[in-house]
Amino acid sequence: MADGLGDKLAAPIVARVALIGLGLIGSSLARVMRRKNIAHTIVAADASEDVCARVRELALADDVTTSLEEAVRDADLVILCVPVGASGAVAERIGPHLKAGAILSDVGSVKGAVVTAVQPHLPEGVHLLPAHPVAGTEYSGPDAGFATLFLNRWCIVTPPNGHTDEQALATLVEVWRAAGSNVEVMAPQHHDLVLAITSHVPHLIAYNIVGTADDLEQVTESEVIKFSAGGFRDFTRIAASDPTMWRDVFLHNKDAVLDVLGRFNEDLAALQRMIRWGDGQSLFDFFTRTRAIRRGIIAAGQETAAPDFGRRGSGE
Amino acid sequence: MADGLGDKLAAPIVARVALIGLGLIGSSLARVMRRKNIAHTIVAADASEDVCARVRELALADDVTTSLEEAVRDADLVILCVPVGASGAVAERIGPHLKAGAILSDVGSVKGAVVTAVQPHLPEGVHLLPAHPVAGTEYSGPDAGFATLFLNRWCIVTPPNGHTDEQALATLVEVWRAAGSNVEVMAPQHHDLVLAITSHVPHLIAYNIVGTADDLEQVTESEVIKFSAGGFRDFTRIAASDPTMWRDVFLHNKDAVLDVLGRFNEDLAALQRMIRWGDGQSLFDFFTRTRAIRRGIIAAGQETAAPDFGRRGSGE
User: Fold this and answer.
1) DSSP-assigned beta bridge partners for residue B14
2) Do A246 and B216 touch (CB under 8 A)?
3) CATH number where B118 lies
4) By the CB < 8 Å criterion, does B261 face chain A?
């Protein structure tokens, strides 16, 4: 089909999947699972009555419920699509109701803390296999999702040390591949360091520069907005992401974030010094080196080569 | 016409324009001036033989020459489209050849330093009117330009104190409006502060985070590239901008950049402390506040509301 996701599967990979949390990621999963016939039955559970009502209107699942316990009963695959900080409490509620042999996964942006919070609540025979689809937009909620969100993006699966069931891993990998993702397997701790540099610290400094601009007395908000096409507006996109999700990311990946942030600060101090002392050659060399990485990202299909992200049309 | 630029002008605004430097901005100006009939005759001058050859192939101007002196002779409007650091030397070369009553303008991202560098080389009767179109892409050179680059973007005109000829100002404003821009007039020093926050410091921290990622030994370049969709890739776009241009910006807007960077560092230290001490409420409040600015930018027509800059299709 024209959406790039290819044909429906001849047979579902799992019989019954329960998605807990129907925000951007959960609702996108529901959509692509239906679109590709990944699961025979999709159960959607969300603690919010409003979200459940909207999910019913959008017809995203076969069953929709506010009862997490009911949702996971008989499910072969349960995917937590909630902010990282909520994972432990949700696991505590659903743990006793999970069926033997079920796979429990999630989509959180932090993995070490999820393993620590979730594992104690799981009965014997349930396979914990955390995962993180590196995909998203700056929008939130069940209306923001779409079936191609994961297409050509990477999903990182992070089996907790010594707890990998090969069959469960194969099933989860198959699910994400069917959703259009490439899959990589790594340890939770390594994931947390990689994402600190590719996602968490970039979000932090984006939030920060937007805050700095907002506080600058000599420059009006109207001026910041008018002249944002000079570069600033690129930062505002990720600084518009869901505050709850990002609060939880920083609270639960503290060590790696502070480590990478320390290096960022060191490097920035060096650039600051080059500017103060007028060291044009070092600035030029530095700015030349950073060009190469973008070419790599475009070549790897993770970014558009179109100028300005191809976003002609803002206001035009 | 469908490009949004509207009809050609019935009569040109200026008889003869000379564009010095045919990179992204100069070549875009040549294109929109032709497209809109802004100038009767367009002369393109570039010190590089290769650039001149390409400008001839693309038929961007009526005359193309490597002689800056020849280009400006008899020109009513001369626009320097060179890196900020080259403005003084170019002004020194062309100064004696400018005709009385001519307007000398530029497109540099720094304005105070341009006034200082250019003014001493101008004969009596030439009107210096620096300007800065806040528009661009991460690409460089005459092939990167396009006629709609300035459409719905802002152009800031910065008359040097006490040297504004009203007729010259009206003409330059008319030229930029015809190119599709909105025009704002402000003092050079205020421009430099506004752009430090909306453009220069954002570029610096984008270059910096890309450098930090490149240096991180525990994370491979391949991992940075694969998982860049988590936010990092947004920064690589502006970190791929022209190194010469950006070296010159930082060397020539040192005070404002260091001032804004000092505030950025203070603010980042506060966020760092919230993370270290697990202050979730303050993080949440901060991340909520920064969402509003993006809504303002979208409402002002300076940005697309489409998720992910509307860049679906990278690699798909």
Assistant:
1) B39
2) no
3) 3.40.50.720
4) yes
Whether residue A309 and residue B311 make contact (CB cut-off 8 A), yes or no, is yes
Answer whether A302's CB lies under 8 Å from B315's CB: yes
* pTM score: 0.90
* pLDDT for res A314: 43
Q: Residue B241: its chain A contacts at CB < 8 A? A: 287
Q: How far is A196 from chain B (nearest CA, A)?
A: 10
Complete DSSP assignment for A238-271: HTTS-HHHHHHHHHHSHHHHHHHHHHHHHHHHHH
B104 lies in the same domain as B253? no
Q: Is A100 contained in some domain?
A: yes
Element (H, E) at A156: strand A154-157
A277: closest CA of chain B, how far (Å): 9
> Considering the domain boundaries, does residue B104 fall inside one?
yes
List the domain range (segments joined by +) for residue B201: 190-277
Are B181 and B202 in the same domain? no
B239·A290 Cβ contact <8 A: yes
Q: How far apart are CA B291 and CA B228, in angstroms?
A: 22
The span from the CA of A86 to the CA of A114, in Å, is: 9
A52 Cβ contact list (under 8 Å, min separation 6):
A22, A44, A46, A64, A65, A66
Nearest CB partner across the interface for B303, out of A137, A260, A314: A314
Mutate to test the interface with B, among A24, A139, A183, A225 (most CBs of B within 10 A): A225
pLDDT digits (tens, 9 = 90+) for A9-37: 999 999 999 999 999 999 999 999 999 99
Output the pLDDT for position B312.
59
Domains of chain A: total: 2
| Helix/strand/coil for A278 | coil
Q: Does B277 touch chain A (CB under 8 A)?
A: no
- Please indicate, yes or no, if residue A292 is contained in any of the structural domains: no
Q: Do residue A174 and residue A42 come from a single domain?
A: yes
Residue-level pLDDT, tens digit, chain B, 316 residues: 589 999 999 999 999 999 999 999 999 999 999 999 999 999 999 999 999 999 999 999 999 999 999 999 999 999 999 999 999 999 999 999 999 999 999 999 999 999 999 999 999 999 999 999 999 888 999 999 999 999 999 999 999 976 689 999 999 999 999 999 999 999 999 999 999 999 999 999 999 999 999 999 889 888 999 898 888 988 888 888 889 999 999 999 999 999 999 999 999 999 999 999 999 999 999 999 888 888 888 888 888 888 888 775 443 3
Question: Tokens standing for A70?
Answer: 């009911």
Reading the block at residue B121, the tokens are 């080389």
* Reported ipTM: 0.90
Assess contact for B143 and B54: CB atoms under 8 A.
yes
**A235 vs B275: CB contact, 8 Å cut-off?**
no
Is the Cβ pair B198, A231 closer than 8 Å?
Answer: yes
Same domain for B22 and B151? yes
Does residue A238 belong to the interface with chain B, where contact is any CB pair within 8 Å?
yes
Q: Is B22 touching A (CB cutoff 8 A)?
A: no
Say which CATH number the domain at A197 has.
1.10.3660.10
Residue ending a domain, among B186, B207, B230, is B186
